[in-house]
Specification:
Blueprint: H1 19-51, H2 91-99, H3 105-109, H4 113-120, H5 124-139
Helix pairs in contact: 4-5
């Protein structure tokens, strides 16, 4: 039989732990459990941030120009009913707006800024600017 610090139990059974040893073992298990819970929470937070609307494929800043909405030098002017004619709407935002049923400047011009902001993952101020631009394009 291997000598242990635990009080010996029955001849054929496992050794009996003292209350202090049992408490230490329980404390170790609880610490491991807390570590795993913290790790799971950190992973969930990273996933939430990576899949949040407006982060994946969105411009890095809310400034007036970003790489996504800068037209290429060889781009032809978009027709008035194409959402990319609105400054700030590129292919990514156009796809997001289309998923919400906003596929034309007429639909965008009649939409509520809150609905547009939620669909595209932008601020309501930016959405209101897009709506104003769409209305101006239709008025031409």
């Amino acid at each position: 039989m291997v000598p242990t610090s635990a009080t010996p139990g029955p001849k054929w059974g496992p050794p009996v732990e003292s209350p202090a040893e049992a408490s230490m073992r329980l404390l170790r298990w609880l610490l491991w459990l807390a570590l795993l819970a913290a790790l799971a929470a950190a992973i969930a937070e990273v996933r939430r941030r990576l899949t949040a609307p407006g982060l994946v494929g969105a411009p890095a800043a809310e400034g007036p120009h970003s790489a996504e909405d800068t037209p290429s030098p060889t781009a032809t002017p978009a027709p008035a009913d194409d959402l990319t004619a609105v400054r700030g709407i590129g292919p990514v935002y156009r796809a997001r707006l289309a998923e919400a049923g906003l596929v034309s400047c007429a639909a965008l011009g009649a939409a509520d800024p809150g609905v547009v902001a939620a669909a595209a993952g932008v601020t309501e101020e930016r959405a209101a600017d897009w709506i104003a631009q769409a209305a101006a394009l239709l008025a031409r």
